[in-house]
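Before we proceed, please read the two lines closing this message. Report back on whether the structure tokens fit the sequence:
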Amino acid sequence: MKISEIARLAGVSSAAVSRYINGGSISEEKKQRIKKVIEETGYVPNLTARSLRQQRTDSIGIIVPKVNSDSVSNLIEGVSSVLNKAGYMAIFGNSENDEKRELEYLRMMQESKLAGVILMGTVMSPKHIKFFKESRMPIVVCGQNHPSVTCIYHDDRCAAREITRCIIRKGRRRLAYVGAVETDESVGVNRRIGTEEAMIEACISPTELVRTQVRFTMDDGYRGMCEILDGGFVPDGVICATDTLAVGAIKALRERGYSVPQDVSVGGIGGGYAGMIITPMLTTVQLYHRESGEKAAKQLLSMIEYLREHPDEPLPVTHTMLGYTLIERESV
């Protein structure tokens, strides 16, 4: 079905239908007549042809480091809920924690003239920063914070401080830390720093913290905990950089004959689904990944609109930090 046919059935001009589809100015009466015909006929605009005419697309790129993750799925839900209402289509790229692939996705999406990109960031390499500074495509990064690009990020440092304080309040002093790789500034570095700050508050030297550095899966958490135990150190409190790592750590402790939380308290960060279905249920700090996705999508749409109205001006850069909530369950 063509626009001319929609116009004939609605009793309006083809120009009016075109303005309606493209969000232009049109009277409320004509808007309702066109809307009624479109709903009755099931007409779907040809987005490709429309994009070629306008030299832009109504598609948003979403790049994530993996897909089998509570934080990623919640972020995607938040992004999608906003984009769907705004009439944008999402195009996904899974970098599989590969920095080169992530950069390739960014370049491909820019060359495809996508309206903008939301990147769930892990590594903020010099090549990433160079791309952000040179690109005219609106970009919002979730989960990391850098001055050169608009970011929606979590208070990772204070979140880690909070879960460590919780464990120390239970009288735990021999602490271990199962941390993430420190190429990830937010999860790897900031959460480790927050843990050490809580120890200093409690008059425990950070040099006494026995820690290991792993990636992000449950198997990694298991291996990290085994590495600490195999080194001859038996903690009475374990802080994990993510809930997923905490689940793996609890499995390792149980296999070695330690009871959680009677012998060892274990805490995570994230508030993911996995922590609610294990026994004992995981004490954690809830981060708001769905809200992060919603805010990122709204911010990106605002940037797209700004660029259309001010094509020759640089895009403003903003930074938004989200809060957290300590959830005390059974593992501490």
About this structure: Confidence is low (pLDDT under 50) at residues 47-55. The radius of gyration is 24 Å. The chain has three domains: 3-45, 59-154+289-323, 156-287.
